[in-house]
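Lecture notes, continued. The same structure-token format from the folding unit now serves as the input rather than the output. Read the line below as a description of shape only.
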């Protein structure tokens, strides 16, 4: 009896949006689709995009149907569904199966939350970039020739300006390109 390689099976089971038959998706505008994909990618990950796109326009879809239609194992599908629920992208109701006595979850896409989540992601990114820009502008950074580590003045002083990785002497780093990059990113997010 041949044993199959589990690594090959997982590579086969990786699902891309383009692999799913188009009939299973509702037609949506590119702008709307792009915004949904960006929010899901940021909050949950790439693997959840196909699930959300599948649920658009559908109501009360069983987790078994979702797993079956997207060719996923049920536990992986449930895991993604609950991650999407935690981020308020999906909502669900639980009903008890009258025959088996199990609880089955029926899922809906919560499209009203997407604009708010998108705005929240932008605000968080903007705050991180502004904090980093302030730190880059006010502090002096040091790095060794091999670029092993980068640290501020206080940390470099603790190590006597020697790299803890390779032992090379650390020099002051010119971070004007980093500051320009952060300034550009902040301008883009403020648009």
């Amino acid at each position: 009896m041949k044993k199959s390689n589990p690594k090959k099976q997982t590579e086969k089971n990786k699902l891309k949006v383009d692999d799913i038959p188009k009939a299973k998706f509702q037609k949506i505008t590119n702008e709307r689709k792009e915004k949904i994909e960006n929010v899901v990618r940021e909050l949950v990950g790439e693997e959840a995009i196909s699930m959300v796109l599948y649920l658009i326009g559908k109501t009360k879809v069983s987790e078994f149907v979702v797993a079956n239609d997207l060719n996923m194992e049920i536990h992986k599908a449930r895991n993604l569904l609950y991650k999407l629920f935690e981020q308020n992208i999906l909502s669900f109701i639980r009903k008890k199966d009258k025959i088996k006595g199990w609880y089955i979850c029926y899922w809906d896409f919560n499209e009203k939350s997407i604009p708010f989540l998108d705005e929240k992601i932008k605000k968080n990114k903007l705050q991180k970039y502004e904090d980093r820009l302030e730190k880059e502008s006010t502090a002096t950074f040091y790095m060794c020739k091999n670029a092993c580590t980068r640290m501020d003045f206080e940390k470099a002083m603790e190590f006597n300006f020697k790299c803890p990785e390779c032992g090379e002497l650390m020099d002051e780093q010119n971070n004007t390109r980093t500051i320009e990059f952060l300034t550009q990113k902040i301008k883009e997010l403020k648009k």
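Point for the exam: DSSP finds eight helices and six strands in the chain.
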